[in-house]
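Our consortium's second objective concerns turning raw sequence data into structural hypotheses that experimental partners can test. To show how far this objective has progressed, the report includes one record in full. It was chosen at random from the queue rather than selected for favorable results. The single chain below, 341 residues long, was entered without modification.
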Amino acid sequence: MKNKKILISHSFGIGDIIMAIPMLKYLKNTYPDYQIDLFTTNKAVADIMTNQPYFKNIYYSKRNPLSLLKKIFSLRWKKYDFYIVTAVSKASKTFKHGIISCLINAKQRIGEYIKRPMLLYTKKQKFSQETHKVLSNINLARLIGDQAPIDTTDIYPELFLDEKTEEFGRNWYAQRKMMPNRTLIVHIGSSSGGKHRRWDRERFKTLIFELKKHGWFTVIVSGADELEESTELAKETVSRLLSNQTLLEVYSVMKRAHAFINADSGLSHLASAANIKVFSLFGPGDERKTAPFAKESYIIRNHESSCQRCLYPHKKCTMECLLSLSTEYVYEQILPRLQKS
């Protein structure tokens, strides 16, 4: 009997694919002889997963209809036994994912539905806002059939680096004469679509100054969307700036640090795979679904705010949940946990 083949379909971002890694580990442990491939429409996802030990093949397509159809029909001829769409969000177009699963024509098509069960999937589970994406993904994988128990000691995301990228991280600290175990990585930005989740830059500035009083080095990590203000903040706080590097190079620096601090951005999931302390400030957003899935993941939000866990602020939203999150409160939540070994 031939070994079976699984195609994982992922059209979401970097944070989402990292939250799918525990599912991939589960599949490889449960079905070591199965071939697992990835189909994605996100180039950054394809790049970061290349040379990771989870997939035999990675297939990438642009999102324009012609490229997408061409790739779909090339995958159709590969005759997959299972097609799994990674866990969705409340705003996902699940019907579109279902159509693509039918066109690829795998024997078993597995995915989530939000309101009504979709006949397009042969096996399905209902979306739950209360279930973390890591667990939703594993539960999707368990629908394959054997229902193997979950190894809770191996449930966390992992990324692997080649020696050249490992050397980048080691040299980065050595050249700057910094001690990794006394270093905090701070991200003040977000993707362009997540600007409503950003905490005030001046509050980050005050927080950094307070933490530096206790002997911590600080590094401001920045993407293109927030480079100007990150550069200014690094100068103002006498922090190092980490920018214009690949995600895996950033990860190489991050995994050697003591902790990561951010305001609910996708980089927190990179930090969760780095197995360091992660402090994420939440206003809009729902940590039950998308908190960094790390052994030491701390969510900081103002639970006394009348506004809780709105995913997308409406026009009259005052952003009270985030604006009422004071520097003093954040500092009090972070410092004692930093000082624990």
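The partners drew two points from this record. The radius of gyration is 21 Å. DSSP finds 14 helices and twelve strands in the chain. Both points have been shared with the crystallography group to help prioritize constructs.
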